[in-house]
Recover the amino acids of this structure.
């Protein structure tokens, strides 16, 4: 009897799985609220300089006399005249509407609060000379995620999934709520970094805790559901941001649900598979019997014993040896080649995905509409990518989606800024292709690593890939030189990464390698087939 047989004996997919696993998936969906939260909390409304205090702002001509105009006739955001410039209106297209000297906005700014009543940008006046500061807070948050991956991955294996999950929910709820009460930008960045660290905890443990309580036949369905978690979370965020536009209220709204998940997690059941991997058979038995009771299988649970568990562990590879270190992974040339191909691909995906998604305001349409478009496009592309991997294979799907995403984004970059419909169409298609490509490479990665090192290999690979998400928001600063330059960078790097995919082996229809030796045998077999094909070509031509 294997561990999978034990899960089937205590109910398989029954009441317990139908309660705990949806709660874990829902918490994962809400985690993604924090990833793109700054699109709304740090949005930049239309603004211009505030005239001196003695100016009568009720008279439009008095206000306009202080404001230089750009070539489109709109007030310049970061300059005002040193003295009011009155007279007939100057033709649109001139840099200013007078030859008067200008100065910076020493009295602050006037904001258009119709869309965003309050953001971090308007509350702390992070504009003009300070406008790069908010772009630093998102890399700080992503750096927190990277640190959290390093911390919670180890803690989940040592302390257990449930303990790490409880601690993560508590810390995320507290750090997110503390962000609401910050009154300066450095304190805000500290809270965002702490939130980034704790976001990693539920991301890691929720997946493991769900997967380890499912029978083998149901595990692919879990992967499909988890693929929709980011889309669901981002849809929630768009609606919540529209209903609650004040940044402090929105921050509180996305943090409070984790207090509820904290309470729910106290009733979660620890992974019996994790207990068994440590040899703690009494706790394994207790967890299985508790699940059997919830599933209405008390009689089946009563049949279990420590002796039966010992036999099942001997029959199945549930305990396994210690996971190899990263250095042991890289000593093998076959594994090293896979690792050096997968990591750059995931780096590129994270870099372009987060860079594109965090620049919604740059497309010139309503930000809530942009959020909906960028989110809903994921579903059809996710399904198309899934079907393509099943029909034409992983590698062709990966190359095609990666190449198309780069082409769409580069096309968006060359379209004039006033062609808003074409720009947002190309950007949306590019975002959909990037999402499809990310889902493909995620599945591809799990199939490439041998079973004996799959957990450690995937964990290390994803952790290193998150490095790509840290500098991606900073690329938006290059728009000061040319407005579409960030899009050129995101698109070009995707196209440049396509040749790397060609170096990876195809896994469709292939059995998953259990050991490094299986991986090497598969590589040698394919090399031998290529040599035979090359030898047959001259014979056929003669």
């Amino acid at each position: 009897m294997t561990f999978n047989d034990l899960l089937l004996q205590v109910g398989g997919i029954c009441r317990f799985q139908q309660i705990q696993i949806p709660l874990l998936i829902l918490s994962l969906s809400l985690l993604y609220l924090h990833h793109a939260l700054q699109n709304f909390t740090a949005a930049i409304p239309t603004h211009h300089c505030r005239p001196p205090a003695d100016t009568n702002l009720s008279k439009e001509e008095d206000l306009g006399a202080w404001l230089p105009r750009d070539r489109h006739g709109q007030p310049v955001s970061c300059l005002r005249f040193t003295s009011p410039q009155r007279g007939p209106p100057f033709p649109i297209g001139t840099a200013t509407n007078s030859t008067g000297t200008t100065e910076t906005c020493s009295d602050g700014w006037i904001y258009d609060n119709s869309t965003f009543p309050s953001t971090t940008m308007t509350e702390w006046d992070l504009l003009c000379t300070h406008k790069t500061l908010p772009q630093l807070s998102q890399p700080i948050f992503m750096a927190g995620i990277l640190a959290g991956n390093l911390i919670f991955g180890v803690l989940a294996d040592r302390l257990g999934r449930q303990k790490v999950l409880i601690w993560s929910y508590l810390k995320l709820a507290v750090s997110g709520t503390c962000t609401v009460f910050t009154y300066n930008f450095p304190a805000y960045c500290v809270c965002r970094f702490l939130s980034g660290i704790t976001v990693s905890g539920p991301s890691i443990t929720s997946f493991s805790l769900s997967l380890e309580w499912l029978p083998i036949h149901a595990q692919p369905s879990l992967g499909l559901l988890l693929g929709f978690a980011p889309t669901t979370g981002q849809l929630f965020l768009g609606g919540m941001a529209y209903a609650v536009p004040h940044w402090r209220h929105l921050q509180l709204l996305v943090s409070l649900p984790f207090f509820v998940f904290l309470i729910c997690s106290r009733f979660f059941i620890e992974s019996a598979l994790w207990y068994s991997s440590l040899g703690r058979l009494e706790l394994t038995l207790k967890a299985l019997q508790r699940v059997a009771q919830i599933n209405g299988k008390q009689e089946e649970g009563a049949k279990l014993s420590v002796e039966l568990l010992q036999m099942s562990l001997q029959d199945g590879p549930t305990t396994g040896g210690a996971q190899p270190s990263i250095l042991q992974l890289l000593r093998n040339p076959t594994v090293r080649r896979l690792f050096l191909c997968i990591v750059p691909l995931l780096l590129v995906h994270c870099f372009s995905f987060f860079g594109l998604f965090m620049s919604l305001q740059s497309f010139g349409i309503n930000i809530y509409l942009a959020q909906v478009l960028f989110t809903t496009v994921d579903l059809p592309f996710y399904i198309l990518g899934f079907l393509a991997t099943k029909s034409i294979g992983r590698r062709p799907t990966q190359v095609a989606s990666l190449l198309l995403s780069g082409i769409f984004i580069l096309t968006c970059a060359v379209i004039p800024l006033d062609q808003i419909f074409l720009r947002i169409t190309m950007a949306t298609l590019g975002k959909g292709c990037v999402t499809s490509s990310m889902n493909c490479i995620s599945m591809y990665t799990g199939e490439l690593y041998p079973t004996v090192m799959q957990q450690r290999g995937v964990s290390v690979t994803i952790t290193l890939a998150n490095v790509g998400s840290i500098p991606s928001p900073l690329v938006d600063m290059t728009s000061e030189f040319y407005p579409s330059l960030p899009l050129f960078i995101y698109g070009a790097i995707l196209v440049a990464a396509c040749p790397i995919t060609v170096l990876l082996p195809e896994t469709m229809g292939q059995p998953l390698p259990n050991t490094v030796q299986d991986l090497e045998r598969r590589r040698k077999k394919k090399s031998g087939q290529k040599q035979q094909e090359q030898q047959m070509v001259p014979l056929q031509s003669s």
Observations:
- DSSP finds 25 helices and four strands in the chain.
- Residues 89-98, 316-321 have pLDDT under 50 and may be disordered.
